[in-house]
Amino acid sequence: MDQRIGIVPFWKGYDRKEVLKAARLADELGYHSIWIPEAWSYEQFQLLTEIALATRNLGLATGIANVFSRSAGLLAMSAATLDEISGGRAILGLGTSGKNVIENFHGVPYEKPLTRLKETIKIAQALWRGERLAPEMSTLFDARHFKLEMKPLRPKIPVYVASLQEKAIREIGRTADGWVPTFWPYTHLKDGIALLAEGARSVGRDPKEIDVAPFVAVIPMPDAGMARSMIKPLVSFYIGGMGVYYHALFCRYGFKDNADLVRDLYNKGDRKQAAAAVSDELIDAIAICGTPEHCREKLAEWRENGMGMALVNLPTGAPYELTEQMLRAIAG
Prior knowledge:
Layout: E1 5-8, H1 16-29, E2 33-36, H2 44-54, E3 59-62, E4 65-66, H3 72-86, E5 90-95, H4 99-104, H5 113-128, E6 159-161, H6 166-175, E7 178-179, H7 189-202, E8 211-212, E9 215-220, H8 224-241, H9 245-252, H10 256-267, H11 271-277, H12 280-286, E10 287-290, H13 292-304, E11 310-313, H14 320-331
Parallel strand pairs: 1-2, 1-11, 2-3, 3-5, 4-5, 5-6, 6-7, 7-8, 9-10, 9-11
Helix pairs in contact: 1-2, 1-14, 2-3, 3-5, 5-6, 6-7, 8-10, 8-11, 9-10, 10-11
């Protein structure tokens, strides 16, 4: 059974030096990778380079880079540079983010997100192979015959895509190496896997080539109720503050009443009440809380439902001692 685990710090309340310590420890304990987020805080490629220089085996992933704030060419160059510096450990995690962040923070029109995602992947993969750009590679700009004037260490850097939308998940099956579902109820991963398989088979790919790597909050504590309370603010933020996609996902899988309540409280500014209103049932569908033994058993259950690599959230706003305890507990 697949035992790979990546770690993911949350982008808010970020202590750069403590994340670097966590990365060193994860490297020593044999974790697969670290997925550095980016919203409107630290820039992720610089942090991944710092981590690359402090570790030996840990994979170095963008978790997640949006396809609007950097061009496809710049994403390709950044990933290839990180890959060379790290000795072949880079992973390019991509997503479309949302209209509010893209337009109001980056000042870029949020237009044709799926097309931009698809063309970004195609252009990056071509550049890594040493190919020249061609006009037919993009409908969004006039691609000319540029190529990278450096030879990438690897002609194929793994590309993982975070998406909740059916069309985008099918496209992952056609073009990418992994799917990163966030807060997708684990007993329904098979629905997304079926979409991946549709896309893969349409271009003659084996669906088994595509990794399913969900973000999953894991809190190994004897008091499961307290552990759930640590995750609820994050979940309420995604329901109320990250656009419509997560709310729609929870509605689709039987949590409509709870998702409506949390969204309404969050949008009224009652953030604490919104967090408290997240139900235990919803948390248990998307996260793992309990003793270390229980957490390891539940991770195995997630794998039985189709998970490949687990991307485990580090505790948010907690002392480093808790992060270290969690990493050691999950590593067993």
